[in-house]
Amino acid sequence: MRIWFDILTPKQIMFFKNFVERLKKDGHDVLCTSRRYREVTQLASLNNLQLVIVGRYGGEERYDKLKASCDRIIKLSKIIKKFNPDMVISFSSPDAARVSFGLGIKHYVFNDSPHAEKVARLTIPLIDHLFCPWVIPISAWNKYGIEMKKITMYQALDPYVWTKPFENKRNADKEKLLQCLKIKIDPKKKIVLIRPDENKASYIIDNKNNKTLSIIDKIVENLADEVNVIILCRYSDQIQKFKERYKDRVFLIGKAVDGRFLLEISDLFIGGGGTMTAEAVLLGVPTISVAPIDFTVEEYLIKKGLIKKIRNPDHIIDFVNRILQDLDYTKKFNKKSKTLRGNMEDPIEVFMKFVKKNQP
After folding, report:
1. DSSP state for residue 122 in the 8-state scheme
2. Cβ partners under 8 Å of residue 286, min gap 6
3. Distance between CA 62 and CA 96 in Å, rounded?
4. How far apart are CA 106 and CA 127, in angstroms?
5. How far apart are the C-alpha atoms of 302 and 299, rounded to whole Å?
6. pTM above 0.85?
């Protein structure tokens, strides 16, 4: 078969890379496309994933998003018409949805983010089948115009795909890993890793109560002398902004890295988004969410006692200190995390069984 993947974010590289390798090994002709986006191109290079770059990321302005998408759809349509795939696989790529619909190609989508309403409205009504984690209710998708029979659920959270090989690698040689990652901090101090929110995403732009930056300010102001604060930035302008704001009080990571290695050396993770927050949980790293919106997957992990959710900047320091100083909390957290992982299945295997069963 000829298969087209449209891979748009760092998460999608980690989710799809082994899938792509497996299909190629089985003799399928695979084309992977993406767009100009700092973290994606850098992470693809780190993972030896070959991408055909088509168009660019539109940024935070609505007009720029629209124009970038329109330009990209035109360019993709020419490439995909020539490649002539039997199926399209994406993580709800609006551009792939429009091209596949227009050219009459089956489009299979993975998605764990019904909260990304604009993306869902542009993709879900046009696709042939949706695959998602079991924790997301069918009703979250029905409102976008998809029938129940077109939804397959898997017993896993998406980061399980790329964290499973790492599940027994916690407590590795911290100093050695720091050297490999080129991170210059005091290895004797505890490490707090922060991933800011995706403030250019369509589901964040209009949020007027986003206090993520204020929370990071509080952490740096109160804890930067006692612990190592590492910030894994998302955008180039975000890197520059944090450099000016925090000077040398934090360690900023400006290049894409495999987040698993960062989490491996971290004592606490503070996440402003969804993917790396779930990834930290599955790797057994005590986790606080400061995301400005609620995620279905996040809500599930909160109920399981695996995430602390904090939106008030005045409450963050007490929680951070409590977690870092309580060794029993970390032990209990690891036990819960291991139990959660032990009950999960590989989403890629679920997909392969579906395709095999439904092939004409």
Report:
1. H
2. 267, 268, 269, 323, 329, 330, 333
3. 19
4. 7
5. 5
6. yes
- Of 99, 70, 37, give the one whose Cα is nearest residue 236: 37
Within 8 A by CB and 6+ apart from 24, the residues are 30
Specify the CATH number of the domain 2-156+345-358. 3.40.50.2000
DSSP β-bridge partners for residue 87: 3, 106
Query: Sign of the CA dihedral 162, 127, 354, 156?
Result: positive
Helix axes 62-83, 94-103, angle to 10 degrees: 40
Per-residue pLDDT at 193: 96
Domain at 163-342, CATH class: alpha beta
Q: Where in the chain is the domain with CATH 3.40.50.2000?
A: 2-156+345-358, 163-342
First to last CA, the chain: 13
Contact criterion met (CB below 8 Å) for 245 and 232: no
Q: Is the pLDDT of residue 162 over 60?
A: yes
Beta strands in the chain (DSSP E): 2-6, 29-36, 52-56, 87-90, 106-110, 129-133, 151-154, 191-195, 228-232, 251-253, 268-271, 287-289, 308-309
Count Cβ atoms below 10 Å from residue 61 Cβ, excluding itself.
12
Residue 125 is encoded by which pair of tokens? 């009504």
Q: Note the pLDDT tens digit of each residue in 56-111.
A: 999 888 999 999 999 999 999 999 999 999 999 999 999 999 999 999 999 999 99
